[in-house]
Structure formats: structure tokens, C-alpha cells
TrEMBL record:
Organism placement in taxonomy: Bacteria, Pseudomonadati, Bacteroidota, Flavobacteriia, Flavobacteriales
InterPro entries, per the entry: HAD-like_sf, HAD-SF_hydro_IA, HAD-SF_hydro_IA_YjjG/PynA, HAD_sf, PGP-like_dom2, Pyrimidine_5'-ntase_YjjG
Name of this chain's protein: Pyrimidine 5'-nucleotidase YjjG
Listed PANTHER family: PTHR47478, PYRIMIDINE 5'-NUCLEOTIDASE YJJG (PTHR47478:SF1)
Species whose genome carries this gene: Parvicella tangerina
Record bears the keyword Hydrolase: yes
Keywords assigned: Hydrolase
GO molecular function: 5'-nucleotidase activity
Domain of life: Bacteria
Pfam family, one: Hydrolase
Catalytic activity, EC: 3.1.3.5
Length: 232
């Protein structure tokens, strides 16, 4: 146990909750459920690839406050359908609702998530900071049986700002009773998670399965969550 550390904070999507797998499974279900092959979208994997690119663009606009949550939910599907020449606002709205309702019910986790959380929960106070939507993230936590591990769950909607803004890290300190110098943030995004935490005066562990190179001072870079046990 690292005696200088008392509180560990986690990101959720792509760090513990396997966003890529769960999203892929739901998008496949959407393609089948809505008969998109009959509307000219014959290749589901291509549909998912197009959607993912558009979704990233919409999320970037959301992070910059250039798009609201409600607009994002359907706009990403409207643009995806438009790519295939489908102009159907009703269908894009329906698919947007299906995705937000169903994907949080999926429970695939990043390998070794439970193992790591079981280990850390006996040594530290665990909390979460996430940019995901308030209601969606709590559903994910409950369905994947993750909520039992975390004290405070700080969402960007609760904080009124999104990571990497320091305000969301400061709110987490306030609500958890931690001190920045005694806190570690674990996340998969170099800018949003790692630099956000470091700039707030925290330690950071970079979950870096793709071996992204950088020159920032982290407590550790790990490719597998199980490696964190040797650090903490």
C-alpha cells in the first residue's frame, strides 16, 4: 500500500466499462432491429465504422459546449443515416433512444476490472469522475455490479463542466474529503484524464493499452489494469 495515497478515482468508459465492445454489440442490434439492411445499409461493420467517426465528432462538439446532450443523442445517428442517403429524422430519433436506453444495460468490462477493484477497495477509498451522462453512467455502474465499489460518483453534468476542467477535480476533492496530493486518477485518455488530474495537482495513472507515447509525468503507465496492483 502506498501510504501517501488515500483516495483512488476512476474514469468509467474505456477504463473499466468496455465501451467499445458494449457499443459495438448494441449498434449491431440496432442494425438488425431497425432493418437497416433493407434501407441500403448492407454492411453492419461499415455502418458501425461510419457511426463511430461521426460520434467522435459530435462528442468533441459536446465537450466544447457546441452541442447539447439532447441534440447529440439523435444528431450522431441523423448524420450516420445521411451518409447513406437516408433522410429520416423519426428513425434517427428512435435509434438514438434505443442506443441510450439499451447500451448501458450491457455489462462487458475491461479485463481485470473486478480483480483490481477488489484489491484496491481493501486499501483505499474509491470514487469516480466521468464525463458520461448522469443517468446513463449510474445505470452502467448498477448493471455491471460496479456501484458497490465507489463512494462518490462525480459526473460532468453534476459539476457543470467536463474533464479536463479543474473544477470537476476540485468538486471531487470537496465531496470525497480527499487531498489532491493524496489522490490518484486512473483513466485512458491522456488529455482529458491524465493531464486533467496532473494540472489539478493529483497523481495520475495512465491506462494505456495502445502504448501511446508521451512525456508527461505519471505515477505509472499500464497496458493492463492488473499492473496497477504493483503500483498501489
Amino acid at each position: 500500500m502506498n501510504k501517501s495515497i488515500t483516495h483512488i478515482f476512476f474514469d468509467l468508459d474505456r477504463t473499466l466499462w468496455d465501451f467499445e465492445s458494449n457499443s459495438h454489440d448494441e449498434l449491431m442490434a440496432i442494425w438488425k432491429r431497425n432493418g437497416l439492411h433493407q434501407k441500403g445499409i448492407s454492411l453492419p461493420e461499415e455502418f458501425i465504422k461510419v457511426y463511430k467517426q461521426i460520434n467522435e465528432e459530435c462528442w468533441e462538439a459536446y465537450r466544447k459546449d457546441e452541442m447539447t446532450k439532447d441534440v447529440l443523442r439523435s444528431e450522431r445517428f441523423r448524420r450516420t443515416l445521411a451518409y447513406y442517403g437516408i433522410d429520416d429524422s423519426t428513425l434517427s430519433e428512435e435509434i438514438g433512444i434505443q442506443y441510450v436506453s439499451n447500451s448501458p444495460q450491457r455489462t462487458k468490462l475491461v479485463d481485470h476490472s473486478y480483480e483490481l477493484l477488489d484489491y484496491l477497495s481493501n486499501k483505499y477509498e474509491l470514487h469516480m469522475i466521468t464525463n458520461g451522462f448522469e443517468e446513463v453512467q449510474h445505470i452502467k455502474l448498477a448493471n455491471a455490479d460496479l456501484d458497490k465499489y465507489f463512494g462518490e460518483v462525480i459526473t460532468s453534468e453534476m459539476a457543470g463542466v467536463k474533464k479536463p476542467a479543474q473544477k470537476i477535480f476540485d468538486l471531487a476533492i470537496e465531496k470525497s474529503g480527499a487531498a489532491p496530493a493524496s489522490s490518484v486518477y486512473v483513466g485512458d485518455d491522456l488529455v482529458v484524464d491524465v493531464l486533467g488530474a496532473i494540472n489539478a495537482g493529483w497523481h495520475a495513472i495512465y491506462y494505456n493499452p495502445h502504448r501511446v507515447t508521451h512525456n508527461h509525468s505519471t505515477l505509472a503507465d499500464v497496458q493492463c489494469l492488473s499492473e496497477i496492483k504493483a503500483v498501489l
